[in-house]
Amino acid sequence: MRTEWLLHSARRRVVVFFNGWGMDHGIARHLLANTPEGFGYDLLSCYDYGDPRLAPDTLTELGQYDERIVVAWSLGVWAAALSGIEGVSRSLAINGTLTPLDRKQGIRPDIFQATLDGWSEKGRERFNRRICGSNESLELLQQMGVQRDVADQKRELEAIFSKLSHSTSATGYASWGFSRAVVGDRDMIFTPAAQEAAWQGVSVSVVSGMPHMPFAAMKGWQEVLVWL
């Protein structure tokens, strides 16, 4: 896993953001740029789940905070549960599940495999259109400037698929469970039905009109944390 401290001012509270597969720190930086002064949290951005565990020194540093909040999107939901972070006060899953390779509660294995097999520049263009749901959102994602090439994204997805093929679920790995789940009713990656089936017993909010990539409609981190 790769990480970057985007806010690191010795505050007593921290938000740990687990981004989606294939991403980098662009989304987290975009939200931070639109977050007003006085946010009140340090911010750690995480991505690249070829190895979903956080580095030992990062886990040690996170353990020094009084309050740890996890915000996870897409495959970042699965990675967060495997990351090794403990003592989580509140946690938010956005358009993802703990069972991402699953016919009923995640992504169908044949679709997952087809995404991997077809990953290329054109495949990435098609995928980005599906996750954004509109030209406006796609343009904003492009402006966020993901600095990862196709080969690096495919390498990550191959590693994730290999791990999931041996154990499809992250359930039971973390000592904490997600507090809330937010489901976009226009998600074309993790279908709304799969997400709702996966989050039995968890408080779920279904957001009308929201595609898989929800951040184009959000003005800053304060709007994300409202969901908690």
UniProtKB/TrEMBL annotation:
<protein>
    <submittedName>
        <fullName>Alpha/beta fold hydrolase</fullName>
    </submittedName>
</protein>
<dbReference type="InterPro" id="IPR029058">
    <property type="entry name" value="AB_hydrolase_fold"/>
</dbReference>
<dbReference type="Pfam" id="PF04301">
    <property type="entry name" value="BioG"/>
</dbReference>
<keyword id="KW-0378">Hydrolase</keyword>
<dbReference type="GO" id="GO:0016787">
    <property type="term" value="F:hydrolase activity"/>
</dbReference>
<dbReference type="InterPro" id="IPR007398">
    <property type="entry name" value="BioG"/>
</dbReference>
